[in-house]
């Protein structure tokens, strides 16, 4: 996008922003050198195999964002009055097509998936306070729901008189059936004693440990069991797995565009299927757009930097430079992260946390038991140690041993620490070799987490 700033003074007109034409695929696929150039702002000293936490943004998209910021700074009145809403609409139209929604009015742009969760849960809270839901009615969520979303559920639902039920998912996991069985048990418990299950919050991809959840099947079960509303927290999904919101069939679906779709922080979408509940959704920040529908409410929450929401078209242009577009990127990332996960597991004599079909562009890899990861605090300290001493950035997950595992294994061989590795287009095999070699050195040196200071 170009600002054409030199034309303004001569012609006495305002820049109307970028063209609203849909981005077209590039004729020439992006080269390895061009990928390196797009991510040259990454610290070259760090093996960054943690795209899942914060995502990444290529230079070309950052440049487009900067141009939007300049348009605002140059003439804010014109920007807000004439450019902002049509440009947000353009982004919403692109998201609508990406997720196969029926109508652009089903798509709102928000800061992140946590904001989307607050919007949905606020509506649930009101239903309890207003008496539409009975005290003690249940909300079901996965045990591995994202931390802030779990706290939001308790903050909005428990305080309003709702009963929160966590689905205890197994890990490591070997099949969708294990997840489905536990989910059915939770719904049955939620419906006991005459209660109703008013909302099911289901992750499409759990964050830690990372597992792809069979959301279509769980949504279908919710419909069969009379669950009022289904909310899919898919923070990691867009750009990572295929999304078809009509096929999934949930009432609400959210995903961050800054994690796996190359947008800068912070932008996400909230899909709300046209239904009675959607009419009651409101943005927590109330503006003069209140009551005009969530998409318009979300498109104006006061003076702020909206530029991240305006570069979706630039992100689409970037992914279209790759063979197969975003589908090709997803397929390649999945294949490579599985390959690297298997390489690490073989090097360490461990295993991955789930089969390939239950992984996306992230995979969990067991770490040698002799490292002595005995708590979540140990996992965090080991992650810091890897960053500070080996320049490897990777999340570590503590998986408590089951009673039978403790009896059947000694502490040296028992796998309690899992690394969540990501693969994105900027990663190279050397990133994973550095991680492999760092762990091998720690094992060789007799390192344990007990050696790390608190």
CATH class bucket of the largest domain: Alpha Beta
> How many distinct domains?
2
Distinct helical segment count: 18
N- to C-terminal distance: 49 Å
Assembly context of the chains: single chain
What would CATH call the homologous superfamily of the largest domain? Type I PLP-dependent aspartate aminotransferase-like (Major domain)
Low-confidence stretches: 1-15
Integer average pLDDT: 92
CATH architecture of the largest domain: 3-Layer(aba) Sandwich
The percentage of residues in β strands lies in 5-15%
Order of secondary-structure elements: HHEHHHEHEHEHEHEHEHEHHHHEHEEHEH
Count all strands and give the number: 12
Helicity, as a percent range? 40-55%
Major sheet: 7 strands, mixed
Order of strands across the main sheet: 2-8-7-6-5-3-4
Structural class assignment:
alpha/beta
| CATH topology name of the largest domain | Aspartate Aminotransferase, domain 2
Overall geometry: globular
- Tell me the Rg in angstroms: 23 Å
